[in-house]
Queue: 3 jobs
Job 1
Amino acid sequence: MFMKIKHPLAAVAAALAVVGTGLAATAEAAPAPHRPAAKCPALTVSKGWYGDNKQRLQRLLDTYGRCSDAYDKRHKPLAVFDWDNTVIKNDVGDATMFWMLRHGKIRTPERGDWRTTSRYLTAPAAKALAKACPATGRTLPTRTNTACADEIAAVYGEGTTATGKAAFAGFDHRRMEPQYAWLAQLLRGWSTARVKDFAAAARAENLAAPIGAEQRVGTGKVTGWARYYDQQRDLIRALKKAGFDVYVVSASPEPIAEVWAKGVRVDARHTIGIRNVTREGRLTARLKGCGSVEDGADSMITYIDGKRCAINERILGVRGKAAERVQPAAKRQVFAAGDSDTDVSFLRDATGLRLVLNRNKAELMCRAYDNGDRRWLINPMFIEPKGKQSAPYPCATTGYTGRDGTKAPVRRADGSVIADQQDSVYGGSATS
């Protein structure tokens, strides 16, 4: 159990400055004066937290929450969580895609042309999909046509055709992951309510299935289970009780994320994901933009820099091109949590603490282990954590993926290169 520590009545925090990019950082705040326990919600789940991570998160709650003299309910501190593999184990987009394939719920593309589903779909992929999935009606018979199910699963899951040819090309790798976007685009023709029905059915199946379960899609086997992390559910509960404004920002389609987020009592208004343009009450294959990206341009989703844009626009109220830029520290989220390179930008923007679940993602782990401002918390995944990565993370050479997909060194805000980092927080390492 967490033991409340009586904090000193006064403490001093030194201000840190990150040079060169506007990523101005505020030092992790000093402990707040002691307050009655009833006013300071405590984290109750201890198992699974690494080192002093739980204690530092508790200090964040005590410093910025209602029990702090500085708390202003008119300007609540902001906490932002990624969803898949951050709040839960496994991927809710995958779960819904697999359910739709098993139940024949993917619509036949407009005019039978698969290129209408994604502007980034390559000619070989469009040809392979057309061959495997001939248009026979409003929906594709993926329950019985295993070749069609296999081809869609390969393009979505691997980014290649079933024969290994690249399925997507020509996209900005810091704003778009076309495989993630493709799920949202394949929801074309359904209403938001129906998509939520699909997600709810997939959720029920995946939560009921035993840990490690697989399901058959086409001729292959794929992940068939999911679990909420008790530690994250507890953290979200405590943050909300402490008066934080808690949001989920996911690279899954927004209606799907909304269904799952209810399980941690985060409502639809506080859930952000990939959004489709709608027409006459039904989703289209076009996607809503952000910042300077117009609706239907399909070139930015809630992915890396796109997550930053979505937070700035939909939470902070920043409009236009400015939403794509780092905002002043006083406006930004105090806390952020993520597990993948897709979360790097909004994690870096957090001014208090940044919680990372280690899934061996190169750029994210380079920045977290570098930990120049001492605000990064690294934790093994709470269920089936990965073991130690034997080779160092290639931070100084190929850890960063540029907008055109080329690999480059991971650089700090001042332009200096981060040295290769050894993996030290992983499954089996000492935890609290």
Job 2
Amino acid sequence: MAPKSSTNGTTMMMGHKMHGMMMHMTFFWGKDTLILFNGFPAGNTGHYVLALFMIFIMSILIEFISHTRFIKPHTNPMVARFIQTLLHFLRISLAYLVMLALMSFNGGVFLVAILGHALGFFFSTRAYKEPHQPFDLPPMTC
């Protein structure tokens, strides 16, 4: 379905109104983007920086959750399974939010997501842990 234009500057694309915003399908630079929510940050520099910061923190948390041991060795198996399930839920939820933010095709979002994952991995790798210590969650596969 081709985009249709109306007289008030609103564009209809696939049945959704796009109020003066263009959907990018290639990487671009700039603060004029929509990340996760309609109208956010929409050109506001402060909101754009806040969105980049939150994506950076979420990326770090994904790696931290993936490489940290939260369950003590002699924990009740049912409690351990419950904690593992909650950690898995949190890790996957954050990973999907970062992935959806990346679908904005904004270069800044891409850079902070990659840097967050790299920094989170650097500070939570096995080099800082006791040797042969298993983690609570299996690694995420690509």
Job 3
Amino acid sequence: MTTQNLGLELRYLKTLKAIHQSGSLVDAAGRLHLTQSALSHQLKELEHRIGMEVFIRKSRPPRFTTAGLKLLELAEEVLPRFKATEQSLLRLAGGKSGRLHIAIECHSCYQWLMPTIGEYRQHWAEVEMDFSTAFNFAPLPALSRGELDLVVTSDPTPIDGIEYIPLFRYEMLLAIAKTHPLKEKEFVIPLDLQNEILITYPVERERLAVFYEFLDPADIDPADIRTAELTLMMLQLVASQRGVSALPCWALAEYLDKGQVSAVRLGKEGLWSTLYAAIRIEQKEQPYIISFISSARETCFETLTAIKLA
């Protein structure tokens, strides 16, 4: 009796997990930094090795066969163990201890950043971590001075010695009350906001994409500006018809699902921004920094919807 070696490889498991999570071969290819052709070739190679199809062709989203589901089950078991071992080896290679003081300029990032920190601390317990918001100070100059080690920002201001590593791209949407007249529009133009109260985070106007990428180029100002520090507070104001607010798609997802507010695109093509991890160039090779950024990317694609690879 002979036994057959199917030749399963880790890359196949990563590919199937990416397809399952993204619901699209195109998005999975982008997440894995592959062309769609390379992804298709890899799938055919896998199916040739196991002698079975792994998902139903032309089904949207991809519907996995029994064999595909078995492999997905294996991926869920193996990939976390692989990642944990990989991080352990990074710690052994050096830099297992250090300091990671983080600040965020993106005030709605808690939804995915806190799970990232929780998962990260399980593997890097020796790293001294601190976390703060950036409402009352300028975090990027503090990063440059060495007072911080990483800043999450959507405003990559050029500063000597600072490198911006893209995490993901996301769309800003205009949150409006359920009965707002703009609800009937496919998208809004800058002129539509001329008579609106715009609710924003307490951040300088020149650092808000709704101004520098949408309103200012059209030389349009809202009727008034109101600030609030918490996303929940902003959306309560929106729901009670006391203004509108431009917020990241993921920050709105829960409230849209519950029917508490509505949303409309900003411009025909949408208003897209990129979120970055800013670090000092001198620290970019530190294993615990590399691991945190990797964990942040992975967590955001697992927990957020409607984001793209940067």
